[in-house]
Amino acid sequence: MQSAVDTKHHLIVTHWTTNIGANHGQLSAMALQVFEALREEKTEVLAYKGYYMSEKIGKCEDADTPV
Q1: Is 0.85 topped by the overall pTM?
Q2: Number of other residues whose CB lies within 10 A of the CB of residue 30
Q3: What is the pLDDT of residue 37?
Q4: 3-state helix/strand/coil string of 7-65
C-alpha cells in the first residue's frame, strides 16, 4: 500500500495498492497522483530514499513536480 499525506494537515491525499514489494520506483506514480488530486499549479513532494530512482525523478520534473 502506498499513500501520500499532506504535510500541513496530515490528511491522506491519495493512496495506491500494488503487489510490488519495494517502494523503489514508486515515486513518480504517487507524485503524479498527488499532483492530479490537489490540482495545484505546483506541488512539492518529499520522500525518503527508499523511493529514489533517478529516471522516476526525471518523470516528476517533466511534469513540473519538484522532488
Answers
A1: no
A2: 22
A3: 87
A4: CCCCCEEEEECCCCCCCCCCHHHHHHHHHHHHCCCCCCCCCCHHHCCHHHHHHHHHCCC
pLDDT in tens, 20-58: 777 677 777 788 888 888 887 777 777 777 666 666 666
Would you say 1 and 16 are in contact if contact means Cβ atoms under 8 Å apart? Answer: yes
Residue 31 near residue 2 (C-beta atoms within 8 A) = no
Evaluate whether 23 touches 38 at the Cβ level (below 8 Å). Answer: no
The pLDDT, as a whole number, for residue 54 is 65
Residue 37: phi, psi to the nearest 5?
-70, -40
Q: Do the Cβ atoms of 35 and 65 come closer than 8 Å?
A: yes
